[in-house]
Amino acid sequence: MAFDLESETITRTATRTERDSLGSLEIPADAYWGIHTARALENFPVSQRPISVYRDLVCGLAMVKQASARANLEIGVLDAERADLIDRASQRVIDGEFHDQFVVGVVQGGAGTSTNMNANEVITNIALEMSGRSKGDYAFLSPIDHTNRSQSTNDVYPTAIKVGLSLDLKTLLEELDLLRSSFLAKAVEFHDVLKVGRTQLQDAVPMTLGQEFHGFATTLGYDHQRLTENATLLFEINMGATAIGTGITAHAGYGAAVLHHLREITGLDLATADDLVESTSDTGSFMSFSASLKRNAIKLSKIANDLRLLSSGPQAGFGEINLPPRQAGSSIMPGKVNPVIPEVVNQVAFAVAGADLTVTMAAEGGQLQLNAFEPIIAHSLFQSITWMRRGMRTLRVNCVDGITANRERLSAMVGASVGVVTALTPFIGYAASAALAKTALLTGRNVADLVVEAGLMSRDEVMKQLSPARLSGLEAITTAIPVVQPAENVVAEIDRTGS
């Protein structure tokens, strides 16, 4: 008999018998996992999501097992034949084979013991098969005595999580760079498109659409830096700590040896913690990393909000930009198209923010020499990275790359905006500018025309100061031109006549 994770049913199939301290169980004959994994399948049918959904976590586990085999051989506690088999079996998992055998649920009790045992059993049975032996022939090669030699779940599991997250982060940062480049390309494309800036959703002063998109790119660049900085906290590992940090059952030379080999295998600048007791119980690096993920997610959500606002309408909203139409937006309103891509990015951000709270509570919930809640920490962090990477990609490919500007609408809005009068205050004074702005609002007339009619500046002078370069701050104002008439007289006249 075998337990099926998806259907939660017992099915009849060819089996082998395996035993542990609790008794015996029938294991599917073709399964590379064994009795410890089988018990976890029965006990934790909660998430219905196996650890194999996080490829880099599985690779991290295999890398730790490979490094341990090499270290155990180096210090003389594992013979060459068994060490080589474990090494080569681990490499096959690193290369992407047998991931479907990592079947325990991502959410589990036991501080990750089930995940560690799943890795031990799969790698052991791959090795047994490679040696010409049958799966389950643990008298020759044992998941615990050999594959898990010098190790404990309490140093293997957090180290594998850290390695896996570091690997996963590389792909996230690559996608973040691509998204940043897309916004930069739009900044160049829209460099000459004037628009009205807004503060508190009210009209402010002019800027270019290019400047707005350049701001999006810049903030993503800062997030890249923060993620990279916080990721270095993951490089501190506790291999050699075994159960609680005292190194019981581990050879004195194991810690240094396994660190050397794991650095070589992963290419990461790993270091052994100074205090293994503290490191075994501490999850602070996960909290810091989670916070940087949340920061990136929330800023992405803010950008998504801006894109939805700027594209709102198309007739009764801002209507400044057009997002690529991706699908029909309503089952009842013909022709309606919604900003579905920014909306999904918003929802990813909400999930990442929730995951950060989960990590925080799990970190707080640990007691004494171990945090039993690292499985939910791992799940939360890997899910956040996965969803953010996918969210960034769909935002780039299905939205940002195809954005266009409504140039005529933007030009008309700038021309009718009283905010442009701010650019004239160095030449006509604040009081006159305020009076003109009031008149423009009341009459709907063009600010430039009102300034010229009031005799404050010539048409050429006005147009020079209201050029796109000056209005957007790309060209600095160096000297003020003399006003034609004292500002206080003009203000009085404007107030009296309304023009």
Task: Tell me what the structure shows.
The protein has 3 domains: 148 residues, Fumarase/aspartase (N-terminal domain) (Fumarase C, Chain B, domain 1, Orthogonal Bundle); 235 residues, Fumarase/aspartase (Central domain) (Fumarase C, Chain A, domain 2); 81 residues, no CATH class. It is built from 19 helices and 10 strands. The strands form 5 sheets. The chain has a two-stranded antiparallel ribbon with strand order 1-2. Helix 8 links the parallel strand 7 and strand 8.
Task: Furnish the topology, listing elements before pairings.
Blueprint (H helix, E strand, L loop, with lengths): L1 E3 L4 E3 L3 E6 L2 E6 L6 H9 L11 H21 L4 H15 L18 H18 L12 H5 L5 H37 L4 E6 L2 E7 H23 L4 E2 L16 H13 L4 E2 L3 H6 L2 H27 L10 E2 L17 H25 L9 H25 L5 E2 L1 H10 L8 H4 L1 H14 L3 H7 L5 H7 L2 H4 L15 H11 L2
Parallel strand pairs: 7-8
Antiparallel strand pairs: 1-2, 3-4, 5-6, 9-10
Helix pairs in contact: 2-3, 2-4, 2-6, 2-8, 3-4, 4-6, 6-7, 6-12, 7-10, 10-11, 10-12, 11-12, 15-19
Observed structural traits:
499 residues, mainly alpha, Fumarase C, Chain B, domain 1, Fumarase C, Chain A, domain 2, 3 domains, two-stranded antiparallel sheet, 10 strands, 8% strand, aspartate ammonia-lyase activity
Order of the strands making up the biggest sheet: 1-2
The CATH H-level superfamily of the largest domain is Fumarase/aspartase (Central domain)
What is the count of helical runs? 19
CATH architecture classification name of the largest domain: Up-down Bundle
- State the low-pLDDT regions, or none: 480-487
Integer-rounded radius of gyration: 32 Å
> Would you tell me which CATH topology of the largest domain applies?
Fumarase C, Chain A, domain 2
Q: Structural class, judged by helices and strands?
A: mainly alpha
Number of strands: 10
Order of helices and strands: EEEEHHHHHHEEHEHEHHEHHEHHHHHHH
What's the overall average pLDDT, rounded?
Answer: 90
Distance N to C terminus: 91 Å
Strand content: 5-15%
Domain Fumarase C C-terminal: 421-471
Keywords: Lyase
Pfam family, one: FumaraseC_C
GO biological process, one term: aspartate metabolic process
